[in-house]
Design a protein that fits this description.
This protein has helices spanning about 1-25, 30-60, 65-95, 95-110, 115-140, 145-170, 175-205, 225-235, 245-260, 270-280. By secondary structure, the chain is mainly α. It has one domain. Helix 4 packs antiparallel against helix 5 (about 115-140) and helix 7 (about 175-205) packs antiparallel against helix 9.
């Protein structure tokens, strides 16, 4: 489920980027060379993302013992940082994403550079691909690679189909609500990744163990059972967490959800306040 939601969200973001660019180029009657440049940038971004993911998986496969634990812990923490940044960035920028992309596409067309247009799409899509590769690597450390692969493929297929439907206008989707729901779910996933990263650093001796096991519920719900694996994937379940793992999980989850779910406040600029004050007084 976590792999599915990660690839669904990241894939839909990439599909929206490509769809917005294509829609704008079609609307202004751009040349076929411009359309080919978009396809070329997208294809190159996908290829680079796959190569990055493969390099990441093969690199960690060569590590053993403490080095592997440290590498996995660092990957977990970096994934949590990127995941948090992505969720809050999209929360603020989703409404103006179309206008920003269209302005950048127009500037590339004015400059007469198809390479610039391809580069614009490439860097926008490859960012999503790199993030996805990092997230999936982190997720495979908490679930089996086979389950992660199936979930990620289903998420990508759903993202592509939804992106095509949105582009053709056959489906309508409230993107603000979509990113709000998936963003909250990803914060829950990130809390589990953070706790797992703390566990890896404790195993490597980089963090103190403190209380090794706050409780042990493996006799009731084992981490290796189907329900245990589901809880681990969705909520970062650990049948016998250490105190530091539990504190990291609870702190991130409560603080992250509190900041994410509160309304985005847009305070007026001081100049706007000056202009509004006389108008209010005169009325």
């Amino acid at each position: 489920m976590n792999a599915f939601f990660v690839t669904l969200r990241e894939g839909l973001e990439a599909a929206l980027i490509v769809g917005i660019v294509f829609a704008y180029l079609t609307r202004i009657g751009a040349s076929r060379d411009s359309l080919r440049a978009v396809w070329a940038g997208t294809a190159l971004a996908v290829a680079v993302s796959i190569a990055t993911g493969a390099a990441l998986f093969f690199t960690v496969g060569e590590l053993e013992g403490r080095a592997e634990q440290i590498f996995e812990g660092i990957a977990m923490f970096v994934a949590v940082a990127f995941l948090t940044w992505m969720v809050f960035w999209m929360r603020r920028q989703a409404a103006g994403m179309r206008q920003s992309l269209e302005i950048r596409v127009r500037d590339a067309l004015v400059a007469g550079s198809t390479i610039g247009l391809a580069g614009l799409v490439f860097f926008a899509v490859v960012r999503e691909g790199w993030e996805t590769a990092l997230f999936l690597f982190a997720i495979t450390e908490t679930t089996s690679p086979g389950v992660t692969a199936v979930g990620s493929l289903l998420g990508l297929v759903a993202a592509v189909l939804l992106g095509v439907a949105l582009y053709r206008g056959s489906r309508r989707l409230n993107l603000r609500h979509f990113f709000a729901v998936t963003g909250a779910l990803l914060i829950v996933f990130a809390a589990g990744l953070l706790a797992h990263g703390v566990h890896e650093f404790q195993e490597a001796g980089l963090l103190p163990m403190t209380v090794e096991h706050v409780w042990d519920t493996n006799s009731a719900v084992s981490e290796d059972s189907r329900i245990g694996e589901l809880f681990t994937a969705l909520f970062g379940y650990n049948g016998n967490p250490s105190l530091l793992e539990l504190l990291a999980w609870a702190s991130y989850l409560s603080i992250g959800l509190w900041f994410f779910l509160r309304p985005v406040l847009k305070l007026p600029h001081r100049d706007e306040q000056r202009h509004e004050a006389p108008a209010a007084a005169s009325s």
